[in-house]
Amino acid sequence: MKNLVVRVDRKRGAYPEYTLEDAIATIFLLKTPLGRKQIAEKLELGEGTVRTLLRKLSNLGIIGSRQRGHFLTEKGEKLKAKLNESFLDPIGVSVDGWPAVAIIVKNPPKFKSIELRDEAIRFDAKGAMILTVRNGEIVFPEDSRPLKETYPEIVRKLMNYEEGDAIIIAWAETPPKALKAAIHVAVFMKEKDLPGELLEVVR
């Protein structure tokens, strides 16, 4: 899947840009109201870029704003619920000291782990594991080795997974990079099922 990028002209010749992954991350981050500066820090984006992204989300009726910060509107909550039919909210974990993020993907298509790892690395991850739920246990699909044998602390953090789900774990230099790399792989896997309203954000 091509990386969807929006570029917006600004004075002084700067070009703020955001991706579909930034938009999805923002929707997940707004479980609680956040200010623009907080969102910029959590996404490692410039405040001008975040302002443009938030304006687009607001114009589409996905978020609102009040004194405490930006929040999901009723439409935004419904959009997030649709997203959760494809993949669940990101979960912060750690892999060998690296900040990492895990995402449970529902009803995944057939996949090749190495291709998905390459996608994560292409999106600034240092590495990724793509796992599956088999006989109620999270395992490496290649050899059915249980994740709990090497990363029991990650397994303890993962909940609400079901038989056949895929689990993406991406790690990177910073939490925002890990977050967006994991989301990128989830989007790559579930591209055909993404809500149309979401794609409007990057048009």
UniProtKB/TrEMBL annotation:
Gene3D superfamilies: GAD-like domain (3.30.1360.30), Winged helix-like DNA-binding domain superfamily/Winged helix DNA-binding domain (1.10.10.10)
Stored InterPro entries: DUF4443 (IPR029349), GAD-like_sf (IPR004115), PH0730-like_N (IPR054039), WH-like_DNA-bd_sf (IPR036388), WH_DNA-bd_sf (IPR036390)
Residues forming coiled coils: none
Residue ranges constituting the PH0730-like N-terminal domain according to the UniProt record: 19-78
Keyword Cell inner membrane: no
Chain ranges of the DUF4443 domain: 101-188
Gene Ontology CC terms: cytoplasm
Biological process according to GO: translation
Ligase is among the record's keywords: yes
Keywords: ATP-binding, Ligase, Nucleotide-binding, Protein biosynthesis
Top-level division of the source organism's lineage: Archaea
Protein name, per record: Uncharacterized protein
Organism of derivation: Thermococcus chitonophagus
